[in-house]
Here is the input.
Amino acid sequence: MTTDIQTQRSPAVPRDGAAPRVQNEAVAIARRPRLVLPALLSGGLLFLCYFPVARGVLAWVALIPLLTLVRAAAPAWRVHGAAYLSGAVFFVLALQWMRVADDRMIVTWIALALYCACYFPLAIGILRLLDRRTILPLVVSVPVVWTALEYLRGFLMTGFPWYFLGHTQHDYLAVVQISDLGGAYAVTFLVAAVNALIFEWLCRWSRFTRAMRLPFEEKWRPLVVQTMASILLLAGALYYGTWRLSQTDFAEGPRVALIQSNLDQRIRNTATANPGEGDANHMLHHNSKLTDAACAREPRPDLIVWSETSHPLPWVNAANGVAEADLPSYLAAEIAGTQKEAGAVARRWKTNVLLGVGARVLSAQEPATTYNSAVLIERDGRQQARYDKMHRVPFGEYVPLVESLPWMNQFAPYDYEYSVQPGKDFTRFHVNGFHFGVIICYEDTDPTLARQYVKEDHQTYRPRADFLVNISNDGWFDGSSEHEQHLAICRFRAIECRRSVARAVNMGISAVIDGNGRVCLPPPEANWADYKKSPGFLVTAIPIDRRESLYASWGDWLPLLCWLLLAFGVFLALVRPRAATV
Here is the structure.
């Protein structure tokens, strides 16, 4: 009779009078397995990997306690419950900064954390299936499953591409350079593989298996092969990273001033709701004074960048193909007011200014369309172009399913209609012969959007961007760990695209990141926390990196390959006849 797969990993055959050890192993396995403590340990270790603690080195071992659930001899509901607990502990702790935004966001915080936690039992369930019914080793299956599910979480239901395992390594630049090959997913794959390898070695140590009440693994030869392959993979990644980091001969681009206003979100909310009144005037005056100081620097900046929606007055444009003469006079007057404001901006600062605005686009017959936008005002006062944000934040910029479920409005942070429409165009702006693209707010956490700018658009004859600009409003999160984590994730966009990123952020951490992911400003030795909740500006020339990137060209080939392997592995596991039980 064939041994059941679940009991196949039996204690080692006694050698040299080792019968007592074998008996002890059997007794250990017969006891109730440890589930909750390893789950809690992994959840806690993962939390420590990210800000505010940011001990990324722990990520190389953080999954090991969780992986004990893969081979735990326990009912599936108990194993999956423990895995869900692990995910819930991690995400509830990691996402606690969301509650700072608004009291109503507490519900969103808990709901998002509990949703994200679902990926942990899903991962463990798939790994248990593959471990028992295929020959796929954990050193392969763990990184494949973890990477595939991170990709799914990054896109499902508009996506939440935060807290990827690879993001823990943002400060280890030699490790993360492989992001230009496979995105942040490549770093996740590497870190997950090392976790699985260490776990497999621990399963050959009787003290560990007894303590965790796991079956003792006897076979060494396959693990030696897996170890050599993993060492080659890690060494190759480090060699590649070191080589890439040696490439620092960047050209000097336009001189950019990044304005960090540090205005309280309540002031911004009031200013948006009541343009032209007290808080709006205060907001405009505050940002203008900071810009005056930045323009006083010599040489004068070629480009001033204001943060997201930092210009409090409505920015009104006519829709494409609509002549102002076809609009009612009161709408034409609104457009004229915007043109007058653009002229005032140019006259005051005598340089190019990128403004974060709330745009209203008018047409003759249809209601005005609103966008979260960036507009570039040239030195002569003309509006060069406008970019409309594409990836909107649920509840922050629209209420999901509100047409079908009106009660969803209860979770909105505003008491008035604030929804904006998604943009459709990857606008290229140009300054002094250089081209750049804009990503607004959380768009810099979406790897898909940023890489579109380094592709040459032959249909519209748009060139590749020479650098990227991110404008964000992190004022919602008022000095929390969100500020550092947001900057850490943005570093991956710079490496993936091999383009510098300039960030102008209200209340968060404005920065310039070069194509190797180095944070040039604030200075590398600076404590990021010192730059939170601090009004000011950063002025520097943008490093121009024109290297090619496989990830920018091929996109998400790695997680898609992981899904292909995962689907094939699950198929084999499901069609394989289940072994009889002893």
About this structure: The chain is about 45% helix and 15% strand. The first strand starts at residue 251 and ends at 260.
